[in-house]
Amino acid sequence: MKCKPVVAAVVAILACLLLATCGVAGPAVTATTPAVLLAASPIPLTAATNTTVPAAASPTATGARPASEPSAEARAYLDAALDLMQQYSINREQVDWDALRRKARSRVYGAHTAADTYRAIQYALRDLGDGHSFLMTPEQVAQMQAGTLNAAVPKPSGKLVEGRIGYVSLPAFAGQGQAATEYATAVQQIIRDLDAGTPCGWIVDLRENVGGSMWPMLSGIGPLLGEGVAGMFVAPGGAETTWSYRDGQALEGDEVQTVVKGDAYRLDPPPPVAVLTGPSTSSSGEAIAVAFRGRPAARSFGQPTQGLSTANREFILSDGAWLLLTVSRFADRTGQVYGSMIAPDEIVPQQAGQDDATLQAGVDWLLAQPACAPGA
């Protein structure tokens, strides 16, 4: 079974468009390694939870299939997706699979094609209860791979605050290949440019990072994070897969996922870093927040994150759609396992219309650090 790197989709972008090896004919799928993905509902679901199953139509004189009965193709496609859920879901031991399968099958009456089963699959993913698994249609996959999902997302940016603090805003990113390299390289260039002003401390703002692919984020922010293991994926059975930063590279285990173009930038000694989080910090954004947990001279400020500190695994279905299943939880470098909302070290109340209290809290803490002391 051939694997390839996984890239996540950003739900906020997909929501705007609509409101986480090729498959072959039949229910074949391809599994890939874990990646961090934002929970999404690319196929909008209604609030209704009850589905009325129409009565079976009488067979025609020619013996044709009753109109309400799903085709063999649709049934096989749905069953393949359900089999993957049952085998890989992080909640597989807590799900009543007989009930879930019955409910899913009741939602595909009249289905003829794979696409006709998408809504039933999305409902089944919701019923897994992890809040993070989702389905991407082939069209959405193509948009993500082409990099068009990032058009409405702010670019990484930076500035000097109070003349002494380097500030880096790390937004969401969905893409792979050259686009991922460009994102990571742009972040390191921002750090390089700001460092020319000799800041004594740094702020990493994740408050608007709704997720995407963690690897270009990790590669880009690496000079502030420092080299070495930054976190882990922890499977239900306790198996751990590390993720780390080294010389411009973001690695999963020993496998390079993203690397910056040209020479990686280095900060020596590692500076103090304040990390800002909020309720929009999600999935891959939460992974970067976790990466700074346990790092010396790092502290987080703001509000708790959204609560999707879990990793998804991509399975490519026979028509090219992606089934993205939550399979593990994040853990930081100290071994602390997450999986839900992550509270910052310091909760900072923020009132509408007021100055940025969270940013100011980070600045105040940094200015109190030895690296920012007068004459340091």
How would you describe this protein?
Strands 1, 2, 6, 7, 8, 9, 12 and 13 form an 8-stranded antiparallel β-sheet that branches. A 6-stranded mixed β-sheet has the order 3-4-5-10-11-14, sandwiched between helices. The protein has a domain at 154-308 and 335-371: 2-enoyl-CoA Hydratase, Chain A, domain 1 (Alpha-Beta Complex). Helix content is 28%, strand content 20%. A hairpin with a 2-residue loop joins strand 8 and strand 9. It is built from 9 helices and 14 strands. With 376 residues, it is of the alpha/beta class.
Furnish the topology, listing elements before pairings:
Layout lengths: L10 H8 L11 E6 L36 H17 L8 H10 L11 H10 L6 E3 L1 H9 L10 E5 L3 E5 L8 H18 L5 E5 L8 H12 L2 E7 L5 E7 L2 E4 L2 E5 L13 E5 L6 H9 L5 E5 L7 E7 L5 E11 L13 E2 L9 H11 L9
Parallel strand pairs: 4-5, 5-10, 10-11, 11-14
Antiparallel strand pairs: 1-12, 2-13, 3-4, 6-7, 6-13, 7-8, 8-9, 12-13
Helix pairs in contact: 2-3, 2-4, 3-4, 6-7, 7-8
